[in-house]
Amino acid sequence: MPQATRDVNAKPEIKTQLNYKDWYASTKKKAERPALTQEEKARPFAKYFRDPVPPDPAHLAKMDTPCDPAKAIGPEHMNDLLNPGYLDVEIGWCNLPNGAGFIANCYQHKGVTAEMIDWWFAWHTLEDLRYRIWYPPQHGGIMISPETRKRMLDPSVPLHEKNWGATHHVTENCDCGMENIDISFMSPKDFGFDMSRWKEPFVSTFAGGYGWACAVNKNDESITAPAMMCHIFRTIPGGIEHRTRFWMGYRFSNGKPELSLPPGIEVPVAAVQGLARHNVKEFKNLGVLLPEIYKELGGKMEV
Amino acid sequence: MPIKLMAASRRRPGLTRAEYFRYIEHYHGTIARQERFKIASYIQNHVIDGAFGVLADRTHQQVSDRECVVELYFDNFPDMLATLEPATPSAASQDGKFFADEPTNVIVMAEEEEIPVPTPLTTFNAGLGIVKSVGSLKVLQYIMRDDEVYREDYYRYWREAHESAMEKSPYAREQMRRCVANKRCRINDNDGAARKHFGMVDPPVYDLVVSMWFDTIEHVGAFRQYNEALQAFPTKFANWSKSLFLYTRSVPIIRDTPMN
Question: Which one of A179, A180, A220, A261 would you mutate to disrupt binding with B, by most B Cβ within 10 Å of its Cβ?
Fold first, then answer.
């Protein structure tokens, strides 16, 4: 809906909706991470817009240099994530021999549950500020389409399914400058997981899909880059274990991952390392933020 | 076929339509056969007729003539790039300027989604009634997304509009033999080099091209009935003034016999 016709009395979760044209035009401003508006400052979760909790330097340092590509996995081996124990690379990044970018990260978040994860990945889509509190230094804003918003606010859709088929339009800096990233979430089945193995204790929940990223300040030479994103979670005593995998340069074709790089081209090292470092930083902060905010607002979508 | 390139072109200044068709089919097509690279299949859709925009438009809001839509099919994206951007420029890539008005080309890299139709097999002529989902008239409908609508909602609304239009169009329900939604792949965003090469300035971006097959051009009224209902769908999703449809005759240039 055009901004001029927006209902100023609507709930914040509705009022924030912009049409595609207006949203796209707004991203340049969002990329500057503007100060909160008076309306945003009045939101009960504005207090979480604060300096983030930094990651353990030793953890971040594991992203300083690439890991051994021979120990990394491609998306065709995603089901190895359902094996007990750990894979050879749980924290690291590299370029795979085919040029794709590979990222792995792993956290144990105390006090976090699968329910919290499911709620967070749906809840944060509804307003810029919800997304910005996740990692204020690098998160500019978020938008979803009117139909996706209906789904997010539909109480008949379970929290863990709300994102299946939903696209998040985020403005985010993954250590390589502000980008507009369209992240289309999928069910674990559609993503390619073997659902006969999809059970506790090997997996508790999942948030993943595929994305297309392009610089906010794009020009005719800018590249729109594809990637597969996988956040898989399993319950551990006292919390949850979060394992990330990114496969940059892949897109889905007819439901299957397909390398989509020009022959002889590698995903730039700076982009792979940048996303890896960003992932360490944003999920450290989320791991601390989530138990706090869930205690206050958890379970419901509207605030 | 996982990915294909659809290139809509019009003839270069000074050529008649007959000269254009002769050139693109018999010369350009032959070059492509001789220098196949990794093309899985290549169809030329020669335009018989078509319409651009809607009756309510005072004047055209787009290039309002198209002679051909070329469809190049590839098994995967690397094959597409290996063919379109070989180490040494292909003869085919150098040949376009001799028949096409290249700066006005419209390129869509698309992935196909088959949309089921109620009557894939003709009931009209027993002589045609042995193979499903074929027809000698192929309609290509380029539907411009309304710039206020998100892509994901656009595809959803189009599908709803399509189903509604089919419901309201008994002639189309009876006569549409096949329908394929060609959805633009975001990889298409990275065609800056091609746009530069062809001198294309801000070419229109179509997120959806729908291919529909009918038995013969005599049945094109079925499409008109369908199209009227499609455009009347109450949810806004398309800019019809910047949309177009083309009635075409398919000319296979490269099409191997499917192996069982």
Answer: A220
In the chain, the amino acid numbered A232 is I
Q: Read out DSSP for B9-21? A: E-BPTT--HHHHH
- Number of separate domains in chain B: 1
CA distance A130 to A107: 22
**3-state class (DSSP) for residue A252:** strand
Averaged pLDDT score across all residues of chain A: 96
Q: Is residue B112 part of a domain?
A: yes
- Angle (deg, nearest 10), helices B151-168 and B220-231: 130
Q: What is the CA radius of gyration of chain A?
A: 19
CATH level 3 topology of A3-297: Alpha-D-Glucose-1,6-Bisphosphate; Chain A, domain 4 (3.30.530)
Candidate from A145, A169, A224 with C-beta closest to B190: A224
Q: Is residue B260 a part of any domain in this protein?
A: no
HSE (CB half, 13 Å, CA atoms) of A2?
A: 4
Give just the sign of the alpha carbon dihedral A67, A255, A235, A137. positive
Q: In this structure, which amino acid lies at residue B223?
A: F
Q: Distances from the Cα of A47 to the Cαs of A103, A123, A133, in angstroms?
A: 32, 17, 9
Smallest CA-to-CA distance from B226 within B178, B184, B182, B170 is with B170
Chain B residues within an 8 Å CB radius of A20: 147-151
Residue B25 falls in which region: left (phi positive, over 0), alpha (psi -120 to 50) or beta: alpha
What is the span of the domain harbouring residue B80?
Answer: 3-255
Residue B89's CATH number: 3.30.70.100
Residue ranges in chain A modelled with pLDDT below 50: 1-4
* DSSP code, position B238: B
Residue B123 to residue B121: CA distance in whole angstroms: 6
- Domain range annotation of chain A: 3-297
- Touching check for A86 and chain B: CB below 8 Å? no
The model's pLDDT over B176-189, given as tens digits with 9 standing for 90+, comes to: 999 999 999 999 99
Q: Please answer yes or no on whether B186 and A223 come within 8 Å at the CB atom.
A: no
Distance CA A94, CA A266 (A): 11
**Whole-number Å distance between alpha carbons of B156 and B33:** 38
DSSP state letter for B202: S
pTM equals 0.95
This complex has an ipTM of 0.96
**Which residues, in sequence order, are CB contacts of B128 under 8 Å at separation 6+?**
B122, B134, B215
Q: Answer whether A147 sits within 8 Å of B152, measured CB to CB.
A: yes
Q: CB count, 10 Å around CB of A298?
A: 16
| B78/A262 Cβ within 8 A | yes
Please return the burial class of A158, using the count of CB atoms within 10 Å of its CB with bins 0-12, 13-18 and 19+: exposed
User: Which phi and psi (to 5°) does residue A113 adopt?
Assistant: -120, 170
pLDDT for B198 equals 78
